[in-house]
Amino acid sequence: MSFKRVVVTGIGALTPIGNTAPEYWEGLKNGVSGSDYITKFDAEKFRTRFACEIKNFDVNNFIPRQEARKMDAFAQYAIVASDEAIKDSGLDLEKVDKNKIGVIWGSGIGGLRTFEDECFNFAKGDGTPKFNPFFIPKMIADSASGVISIRHGFRGVNYVTVSACSSANNAIIDAFNYIRLGRLKACVTGGSEAPVTIASVGGFTALRAMSERNDDPKTASRPYDKDRDGFVVGEGSGALILEEYEHAVARGAKIYAEMIGGGFSSDAYHITAPHPEGYGALLSMQDALDDAKIKPEEVDYINTHGTSTPLGDPQELKAIVELFGEHAYNLNISSTKSMTGHLLGGAGAVEAVASILAMQHQIVPPTINHVTEDPTVDNRLNLTLNQAQSRKIDVVLSNGFGFGGHNATVIFRKI
Description:
The chain is an alpha/beta fold. The protein has 2 domains: 6-250, Thiolase/Chalcone synthase (Peroxisomal Thiolase, Chain A, domain 1, 3-Layer(aba) Sandwich); 264-405, Peroxisomal Thiolase, Chain A, domain 1, CATH 3.40.47.10. It has 13 helices and 14 strands. A 10-stranded mixed beta sheet has the order 5-4-6-7-1-8-14-13-9-10, with helices on both faces. The two termini are 23 Å apart. InterPro entries: 3-oxoacyl-ACP_synth-2 (IPR017568), Beta-ketoacyl_synthase (IPR000794), Ketoacyl_synth_AS (IPR018201), Ketoacyl_synth_C (IPR014031), Ketoacyl_synth_N (IPR014030), PKS_Beta-ketoAc_synthase_dom (IPR020841), Thiolase-like (IPR016039). Pathway: Lipid metabolism; fatty acid biosynthesis. It catalyses: a fatty acyl-[ACP] + malonyl-[ACP] + H(+) = a 3-oxoacyl-[ACP] + holo-[ACP] + CO2; (9Z)-hexadecenoyl-[ACP] + malonyl-[ACP] + H(+) = 3-oxo-(11Z)-octadecenoyl-[ACP] + holo-[ACP] + CO2. This is 3-oxoacyl-[acyl-carrier-protein] synthase 2.
């Protein structure tokens, strides 16, 4: 069957290095670190005392207080980024067929802070069950897509994907498929996470997954560096408006890029560790290339999953070299998590925005904080270390991998 073409007509971002997409891009190209000591709770007794938090953000500037109090932060972040993307797209919400606009969102955890707060409050009481009436709707992950839909009256398909740190890429691919199959005219997609909480930081440090560089948090997220010691958790949201190409052209929309492929795979190996040979990563990228009907040599830039973990970083690069062959050394590769930290279920969304903006500006954002070469990393690769690089970028591939062995890859092309 023949598929509809799918394009990106709007973007939005709320990140630790910029509270709008343009601010985010400035942070990316200038190599700004979003990591600092935690302010959301007292982390003094934690092994990790820093994170990539959003800064100078007041939700009541975007959502009335009475509405905001009914939402967990991850859903608030979803509204802020999606509102920006919808406005940026120029969609006329008075004229568009809202029955044909969907919302497919990604979040790996959902309302963790809400769950924490309610449990702490109960534990402090006398055993009498006193819970906030909004506890459940605030906590459940699907509330993010629900509140976006309700806010704008979008009546198309509506759900949230939960596949750990590949959740947002999963959502973007699902939105892509609904549009190219002709089921939707447009879709709000992306992902959000609000994991700078006691349980999240405590849980990830118990796994020994997070950096413990408490003496120098700004440089703690250092993908591919010999002394990397784990990821830095981040919070925020990224949003895309995906739209049927003909629909976008008919209304005179500006078009950032065309989405041409998405791929999935499973490591089928371990609940937290990646496949030692990067086999799942390779399969996901291969599936995306096959879906896009392009050759590996056509890709110019890869925004890697690159979390700054000892195991994950070299295995993804091993998969890239295996799949792309000699062309791997002609690519630019970078991990924007070195700046934003790891937004977990929202990571793929902010990285898709970064990838699209890199293509628009023909600038590859850097992998910052690299000091010492790691012999387990193929340092012949152009990892765009410490400074942004200008280059011709026509095709971008972006990876997202998650606990449980979930892998999802998206590909965008300049139009």
